[in-house]
């Protein structure tokens, strides 16, 4: 067995012991939405316009117990979904989860990302959340995924960030040291970690961080084990993240949590500092943001297989486009809603009238028509688009 195979076997053993995520199984569709798992919403975020079809091939690479897979299936009923994972036990739970909730458009297969050449064809959309950082060679893993992404296809990725996981990494090391030759016994690792947190001084930094940030989700042993006794983990900085991305040959489309990456929220009140930051490259600005706000615990972002050309809406093209309401919002119809990220938002009367018109005649009216009815300016339409409240289809 090679060292890479040994790591993969250890990871599989962890998730056979503690299938993850440990969310309960329900006899109904999952509640709410995650726009990153909604094909039209995700594609619109990346491309600036709605996709031409909803009948796409989707790969959930590292599906675990199927929490994300289930959402993908219910939010995209026309999609053909393949879900893979190293852990046989996790696959069993995922299959049962989706059967019980009525998600029938999924094929499950125990398979390593390194072996996805075995899957036929290519995929329009790949979801890979919380997986690459657990591979013995994440670069090779992402390259494997890239080889199965269709031209113009998109992939959503989630990997860990080192800065916000500093205390976690220290506790991981402490548990490993105390386990000694019992490292790899994951139930023992959980026991050691629980004892440490219970008996460290109350003001200990590691204990405080666990209590303040992670204790609620770590009530379940599966979550605790995934965080503190994982046999393989790579944590990134902006610099090493883009080394991973550059090696893939894919185009970076942007982070899927753009609010965090807005430098103005940190130094926007100081024009001199903003002017200095404007001279930095985009990647340098990203690095500046994470060192100024080191709470970041993960990176989430979209990549695309070239050719991929996001639309740059001219005023004329925008006026002729066909608008639709983004379905990923809660509380509609109302001026007071939760947006796609479940953040409260209050629409102006004109914005509400515009979105209402879109919702009444999806795909059969133009932006110009809705603007005239709602008495809304074109810059306000651009704002609705940037806030992911509407999706646009180009004039055919």
Mean pLDDT: 97
CATH level 1 name of the largest domain: Alpha Beta
Rounded to an integer in angstroms, the radius of gyration calculated over CA atoms is 22 Å
Overall geometric form: globular
Oligomer: single chain
**Number of structural domains:** 3
**N- to C-terminal separation?**
56 Å
What are the secondary-structure elements, in order, as H or E? HHEHEHEEHEHHHHHEHHHEHEEEHHHE
- The count of DSSP E runs of length 2 or more, i.e. the number of strands, is 11
Look at the structure and name the CATH superfamily of the largest domain. Answer: Vaccinia Virus protein VP39
In short:
With 396 residues, this protein is of the alpha/beta class. It has helices at 3-17, 39-47, 67-75, 88-101, 138-147, 166-179, 186-199, 205-214, 221-228, 238-248, 264-267, 271-278, 282-292, 315-320, 349-360, 367-374, 378-386; strands spanning 57-61, 80-85, 106-110, 123-129, 149-160, 251-255, 298-304, 322-325, 336-338, 344-346, 390-393.
Kindly describe this structure:
With 396 residues, the protein is of the alpha/beta class. It has 3 domains: 195 residues, Rossmann fold, CATH 3.40.50.150; 65 residues; 79 residues. Helices cover 43% and strands 15% of the residues. The protein contains 17 helices and 11 strands. The strands form 3 sheets. A 7-stranded mixed β-sheet has the order 3-2-1-4-5-7-6, with helices on both faces. It has a two-stranded antiparallel ribbon with strand order 8-11. It has a two-stranded antiparallel sheet with strand order 9-10. Helix 6 packs across helix 8. It is globular, with a radius of gyration of 22 Å. It starts with a helix and ends with a strand. The model has no long low-confidence stretch (mean pLDDT 97).
